[in-house]
Amino acid sequence: MKKFLYLFLFIASTPFAFAQECKLKGMVADENGIPVTDASVSIFDSKNEGKGFIFTSNVGEFEFKLPCGEKYDIEIEQPGFETYVENVDLKENVNKKIKLAKGKEISLKETIVKAQQAIKVKGDTIEFDADSFKVGNEEVLEDILKKLPGIEVQNGKVLYKGKEMKQVTVGGREVLGGNEKLLNKNLPSDAVSKIQLNTKFKSNPFASSLQEDDEQFSLNIELKDDMKRLAFGNVTLGGDADKHTDAQAKIFYFSEKTDATLINDFNTFGKQVFDQDDYVSFFGGYSEFNSEGSIYSLRGGTNNFMFPSENTYPDMNTYNGAVHFGVEPNKKLKVSGFGLVNTNNVRYDSKVERSYPSYTKENQFFTGYTTIDEQKNKNNTLMGMSRIRIDYNPNDKGQIKYRLNLNYLGNDDEQLVDKYLDGAKSGFGRYYTDRKNYSLSQTLSYIRKVGRDDNVGFYLRHQYQDETPEYQMFSSTIPFNTFGSLSTINGEYNLNQNQKYNVNTIQLYAIYNHLLTNTSNIKLKAGTNFSTQDFENKLYDYQALITADKAISNTEFDYNETFFDVTLTKKFGKFQADLGAGVSFFDERAKFVDATKLNFKETKVLPHANLSYKFNNATSLSASYNQAYNFPHAKDLSDSYVLQSYFSVFEGNRNLRQALTHTGNINFSYFNSFTFFNFFTGLTYNKREKSILTASRFNPDNQTQINSLLNSDFEDQTYSGYFMIGKRFTKWFNTRLNGNVSVGNYYTYLGNSKTNNLQNAENTSISQNYTLTNTFTFKKKLELKAGLNFSLSDYKSQLKDTSETLNEQKSENWRPFGEAAWSITDKLLLQSDFSYRIQYINKARINEAKEWNASIRYNIAKKTYVSVVGGNLLGNNVIVSNSFNDNFIQTTTRNVLGRYFIVNVRYKF
């Protein structure tokens, strides 16, 4: 089988021999023979249409691959030189040596490459004329962007030189909540006039040159004059004759000062309407989640979002509704907001097999066991997200921002479980969860530029979160021995849990930047955090409150962190160093249900460093190091019992202390738009001291466990690395290989709940994942993708003192895949994808699955499309997944949606 896969990989990676392309190469120099770098080189065919555009390399070279037997115009522009124009008859490979003549000394604000056609260079902005790159099969903005030189589009995200755009605007204004994927996949192509690429974009207009020295890009879309007030979208209606429905409406509107979005979707076959990137974009992008702020050090934090994902359950229905508005009444004020609702109702069966370890140490015996749970699952989820953004610029020196996020998550879950122990049935249970989570976060900031060399920012953040999960267990066997004797009704036990968790946090901080010289900068950051947490947990035997030891939790926790940080930035030519350190003063107070009080006051120093070297515009190397402390929160400290699942109970530890983490990174990137080759790689190292780890005590009599937390006496370490290599060999063939590797070494404790003795276990895990993707494009009508995904994991757990093996597993997954999109005619589009998944555990094949989906779409009228969609055409009924954690190895098998066919009609306007 592997030989077949290697052969498949080789064939898929080999370019076809019949391509009739010629190379047009050249070297550009001045009158003295010195190479001219970063000169713009444009190619036009006999119809005056742009066929390529690049900049000369750092040695003045350029290269194009073009169809042979045609005539082309070469135009070369560089400020300070006269424009060079030459006609070339490309019958075979051509290599030219070009000398540019010195031009007049003028202030060049705009260089026009080809009159009003194809490409203009305006200082740091490259402007593409959209009509010059259209061939007639473009429907939306994304179709045009894919044809622009140097620009890539991946899942709706726009990249230039391998880096993601920092901002995509329309008419200079952010629209659709900043969700560029929605814009790229829906804005009609015939509305686009110009596409402007800014190669020196700064997302923070108040930053000094040193604060934001990385190469950043932004994209602006200019609409045609008669389409600057535009309403567009699509409506889809479809289904089958049995149980499936597909209904969707997307409506977009924007003018020069207003934009709005309305999206509604209902489907019964697991179609994903928004992915995680979409949700993050609605919140303002990852920069909003990771924006510069405090050194808030509590474990876990707040505002944990659950993003719905694509699923294939056999019985389900999903609704997504989203509304967005944006208004810019004047240049000083921008207001935008959105609301989103998601409901998801699923029903499915699953089987979960868990293998627990056994060990022998110092005459202590623990016999491992295997459980199998056959589950019938029902899950109903309601999620709501909303956001308001206000940006106000009272003048060109100040900026005020306000952000308000409101979120709600409601989840009802029901499980009916037949339980088996080592092959024999051991019981039956019914389990119900009712979880509600409310959260609010708001940020107010004011940034002001002071003079020429200084800026200062003031920030206020408030976060509030309220969780009320309730858990109810009905079991034919006693659920846990921990709570003493429990009553039964009709031979059935009933254990209930009511929980409340409330977090309220305020953060105040200020950041001051001062440009010392043109090559050095100092940044000062100071602030304080206040967090109050209340955690209550009560357990009931039917309706009677359990009063046994540790059955009731009531923990109050107050946390304060005051910090000061200084960073010095110094640039030496192409090398830049950011060196600094912070000092934090921690004050923690906790009060427990037994009236015990704890108070800790500590001072910690946190050094950090970032080094970068930019070899040229295409190549850079960076390295960083920082330290961080993680402090336990209220749930960690509460040493009462909390139900985690029907087979595990959690017990906190009021003696927990902070854990120190060292993190080091090194990254290398290379992107060459001249050779269309890019390479990115990075390595991260983490070392954790006194890390907060899991200690588990197992009870083999009823297959339950009690999990707690301890500070480790040993250091945990993790190495992880990634790489991506991409190369476009010809205009019709490119390949991409990416992979990541992670190696972890960490410690846990486990033992027998009867003896309460804990043994220290050393765990080692190695995981690898690689994907090769080859893309072939023929005459802009047929696009083929062929590739292979390979993943490997190796996990081993053993007693630290005796090296006795507890658990060991090697899993291997192969997945060759292919995709095809064929524009048979201008009206008929055929799409299909296929994958073949093979899974091994300890060299034994546990599963193989072939998945095939296909669709055909016909444009029956100018704006109307009819599609026939076939999913899971090979009729797979189950999906198998494998995982491991500190306590057991788990294999899960669940049933999935079978074969289905859907017919839908879509109208675009």
Describe this structure in words.
- Its main location: membrane.
- It is found in: Cell outer membrane.
- InterPro entries: Beta-barrel_TonB_sf, CarboxyPept-like_regulatory, OMP_b-brl_3, TonB-dep_rcpt-like.
- With 909 residues, this protein is mainly β.
- Among the domains are: 88 residues, Carboxypeptidase-like, regulatory domain (Immunoglobulin-like, Sandwich), CATH 2.60.40.1120; 105 residues, Ferric Hydroxamate Uptake Protein, Chain A, domain 1; 168 residues, no CATH class.
- 4% of the residues lie in helices and 64% in strands.
- The protein is built from six helices and 53 strands.
- The strands form six sheets. It has a 35-stranded mixed β-sheet that branches.
- The longest helix has 12 residues.
- It starts with a helix and ends with a strand.
Shape: globular
Low-pLDDT parts are 1-19, 105-117
Count of DSSP-assigned helices:
6
Structural class: mainly beta
Rg is 31 Å
Q: What is the arithmetic mean of pLDDT?
A: 84
Largest sheet: 35 strands, mixed
Distance between the termini: 49 Å
Number of strands: 53
Helix content: under 10%
Strand content: over 45%
